[in-house]
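Fresh eyes needed here. Have a critical look at this protein's tokenised backbone.
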Amino acid sequence: MTATARPGELRRVMRIRDGLAVTVGIVIGAGILRTPGLIAGYLGSAWPILAVWVAGSVVAGLSTLVLAEMASALPEAGGKYVYAREAWGPVMGFVAGWSELLVTRGFSGASKAVVIAEYVRLLAGRGNVSILAGAVVLGFFFLHTRGLKASTVFQNVTTAVKVLVILVIAAAGIWAGDMAGFKGGEIATTGSKLGGLALAYLAVSFACYGWEDAAKMAEEVRDPGRALPRILVGGAVAVGVLYLLMNVSFLAALTPAQMAGSKLVASDAIAGVFGHAAGTVVVWASLLILVSSLNVNFLGMPRVAYGLARNGLAIRSFKHVDPRGTPNKALWFISAWIGVLAVTGSFAKLIDYMMMVAIPVDCMVLLGYFRLRMTRPDLERPFRVPGHPWVAGLTIVLYLAIVAILVGTQPHLALGGGAMITAMVVAGVIVARRRPAAASPPGA
């Protein structure tokens, strides 16, 4: 398949730089802007705050290595859905794919729309968050009806500006701040330390989530066996470095007590050292960061729906690709779902439940790495995880430990997340039994 694919096919138009823009674009968004205040409230002092960000980045980096091998070996549209399907069969493929559409990517897209609406109201001084969030979703829907080329150009430009803005904010905070966060200003936290750490990790996981999104568009990447590992690993490293710089910058300008509860720590940090006008500029910059991040939800999610439909695990119309290369029926569904969540949900609850589903499902997908190594040893793997099996094994152990801590400290969230996963497993069994016998992955 080439860039001049036949009608109804996806087109290979994405380069490595496009993929990096997608990765950095989706990951750096509402998480780094909205969660630092929550995390400061959960943990209360500077070093635990930095430690949980480092831990989240390390886990994301290790996960990326594992997914990079599977992505290079199975370069199909859909990302994690494809790896779960190939490793565990259609039921787990259904769970991985629909958990992304309905929960992880749906909830994250809605949360970004909510935060964009909050910031617009902050700048305008008035406005209804629900109505504004709905308008944001509608705007992205119309952008993506213009096709992949238009949306990737938009992504490249906004991501380049985003990285520049983040570096400026980080440099300004570190240069002008007096390291206030490391000198005191700790706050007493409520509840157990382990419970606070669990909630903080959920927030960091949300901020790091999306490092694998470029893999969803594998059938639109040029030379995916070579390009996808570079995109995934390079994007994860870039995001980890930028996040650490941002948090050092925040703690250079503010104490944990000043950060706690803030809806935009970046603006508070810059306003604290340069004045209110500079803080307002950061709000505008934050809007650009969020717009770039939300754009990738609309890029990746229709490709997951397309991959599910092609294998009989979603309605047939999701397979329809318009002349501009967009799975347009899937785009309609995705836009409607994000819109419903955005006008009815709140940021904190959206990310808590999102990650309670995402972490166990991702653990299942990552376990598929070992399954594929055993059942498909002859599968061509342009990229292989270094240090096999220890690096991949460590990644799985960390995920299992995180799941155990979350279940033990957040039983109500765990019950909600477990109920969602159980419902998707039941639905997957039903759909897998009813799907046409001919439905099979390309090349199977």
